[in-house]
Specification:
- This protein is α+β, with helices and mostly antiparallel strands.
- Among the domains are: 30 residues, no CATH class; 136 residues, Sandwich (Immunoglobulin-like).
- It contains two helices and eleven strands, in the order H-H-E-E-E-E-E-E-E-E-E-E-E.
- Strands 1, 2, 3, 8 and 11 form a five-stranded antiparallel β-sheet that branches. Strands 6-5-9-10 form a four-stranded antiparallel β-sheet, with no helix packed on it. A two-stranded antiparallel ribbon has the order 4-7.
- Strand 5 and strand 6 form a beta hairpin.
- Helix 1 runs antiparallel to helix 2.
- The longest helix is centred in the first third of the chain and has 18 residues.
- It is rod-shaped.
């Protein structure tokens, strides 16, 4: 655009002058401004201001929660019930065996090579077995007093007292053995069959009578080798042994 200054500038100044210094100064300023706008034909440069882009908000990734590993549950061990203490009764003391009772003792003659009584030189010898027929163990003395009984239970020969001896224990069904010897029986009572051997057992056992071989048994009566008019006779039993 081309500007120009109007021709009435002297009149304008005159009027400003009349209005006073302030009006004059204002008029001068206005004129300078108009001259600046119209005195140049150059087009002022256009400055383009590119607005800076607004900062883009960067999203901060939210960390995913990390799950703690789940502990495998440990099975609680089941405690076995504590058994109640079992009361063990004290063992009942077993009393020592007592003396054998004659009722539960069996006395029998034993054969040797098929022979029961063996004789010679006025003697007769046989082996006897003493067996415990009871259900409990019992004791006997190792030595006993032997007798030779007549069939009418009278005594034909009485042996010597046994004296002291060891104590033996015989279990149920067990047996001991001993030899019995008779000798020189003279001027005694008439013989009545069966003649039997009997044993007087010390220590509380009592009298045990042997079972005869038969109702006519007189095998235990020894021959007389002395004065037949004088009574004599002997019977002895050896100590008992298994």
């Amino acid at each position: 655009m081309t500007g120009f200054v109007r021709s009435d500038r002297p009149g304008r100044r005159e009027r400003l002058r009349r209005r006073g210094p302030r009006a004059l100064l204002a008029g001068i300023a206005l004129g300078v401004a108009v001259a600046g706008c119209t005195g140049s034909s150059a087009t002022p440069p256009i400055i383009y201001i590119t607005p800076s882009p607004a900062p883009t908000a960067v999203a901060t990734p939210t960390p995913e929660p990390t799950l703690a590993p789940t502990a495998t549950p440990t099975a609680t061990p089941t405690l076995a019930p504590t058994p109640a203490p079992t009361h063990t009764p004290a063992p009942t003391p077993v009393p020592p065996p007592g003396p054998c009772n004659a009722t539960y003792m069996a006395l029998t003659i034993q054969a040797s090579s098929g022979i029961y009584w063996q004789g010679g030189a006025g003697h007769a010898l046989a082996t006897f077995q003493l067996k415990n027929t009871g259900t409990v163990a019992c004791t006997i003395k190792a030595k006993a007093q032997a007798l030779l009984l007549n069939g009418d239970d009278s005594i034909l020969i009485l042996g010597h007292a046994p004296g002291t001896s060891a104590t033996l224990t015989i279990g149920p069904g067990a047996a001991v053995h001993a030899d019995v010897q008779t000798g020189n029986f003279c001027d005694g009572p008439a013989i009545v069959a069966p003649v039997r051997v009997a044993l007087m057992m010390p220590g509380g056992t009592g009298l045990i009578v042997a079972k005869p071989l038969s109702s006519t048994d007189t095998g235990g009566v020894p021959p007389c080798l002395a004065d037949p008019s004088i009574y004599s006779g002997s019977i002895d039993v050896q100590p008992w042994a298994a």
